[in-house]
C-alpha cells in the first residue's frame, strides 16, 4: 500500500509540474502572439480579441489535458520528446475555442471566475448585440486556427506534423458534432437513454480532452497510436463518461460554496443531463411534477432546486450516480492496467489512477 500511495504522489507531483511549466509557456506564447499574427496596424478589434483570448486562456484550468499529453509520451520514454510543447499549445488553444463558443451557446456570463468572452463583448458593445455575438464567434474561430497553427509551427519532421494536425482536426470535428448532438438531446420529447448520454459525453468531451492528447503524446514519442486505437478509445470514453457524470452530479448535488458557482444550472437551462435523466426515471408522479416544473425555468428559485435535490437524495439518485461513476472509473482502470506489459509502469500508474481521482472530486 505504501508503494502505491507513493507512486500516486509522484504522479500528482508530475501533473503539477506539467501545469506550472505549461502555464509559463502559454504566457510566453501570448506575449509574442501579436508580433506573429498578420493583422493590419489600424485594427483595434484584433488586439482586443487577442487580449480576451489571452485572459481566458491564462485565467485558470488544471491543464489535465497537458498532463495527459506528457504522461502518454512517458508511457514510451522518460527522455525529453520534441513536439510536446507545440502539441500542448494546440490542445489548450482548442480548449479555449471550446470555452468561448460554449459560453455563447449557453449564454454563460462567467467562466473560470471571470467574465465569459461573450459577456465581455456584450459589455463592450451594449448597443450592438449582433456585433457582440459575431465577435465572440470570430474569437473562438481564431483560437481554433491558432490551435492548428501551433502544430504546423512545431520543429519536428513534416510527417509527424501532418499526423498531429490530423489528430487535432479530427478531434475538433468530433467536438463540433458533440455540441450539435448535445443541443439536439435537449430538444427530444423524452429524456434520453443511457446510450445517448454516453455518446454525447464521448463526442463532446472525451475525444478532444482525453483521446487526442494521448494520441499526440504517443505519436510524438515515436509510438503509433493507431495500433492501439480500440483500447485508447475505450479508455477515453469511459473516463469521459465518468467526468461528465461527475459534472452533472455536482451541478445538483455539489456544494455551491466549494464550487464557487450556484447549483441547479442544468435544471434551469432545461438540459437533459445524466442527473436530470436519472431523476425523471426514478421518481413518482408527484415528484416528477416538481422536477418537470423546474426543468427549463430560468427563474427557478434556490428553494425549488433544494427541493429537487432532496427528491434526488431521497429516491437514491445521488447514491446511484456515485456508484455509476465509480463503476465506469474502475472499468477504465482495468483498461489502463492492461498496458503494463507494453509500456512504462510509472506512466501506466498515472492512467490507472486518473479515473478514480475524477470520481473522488465528486465525493
Automatic annotation (TrEMBL):
PROSITE patterns: POLYPRENYL_SYNTHASE_1 (PS00723). Pfam families: polyprenyl_synt. GO terms for biological process: isoprenoid biosynthetic process. CDD domains: Trans_IPPS_HT. Keywords: Isoprene biosynthesis, Magnesium, Metal-binding, Transferase. Its EC number is 2.5.1.1, 2.5.1.10, 2.5.1.29. One of its GO terms (molecular function) is metal ion binding. It is an enzyme of class 2 (transferase). Its cofactor is Mg(2+). Belongs to the FPP/GGPP synthase family. This is Geranylgeranyl diphosphate synthase type I.
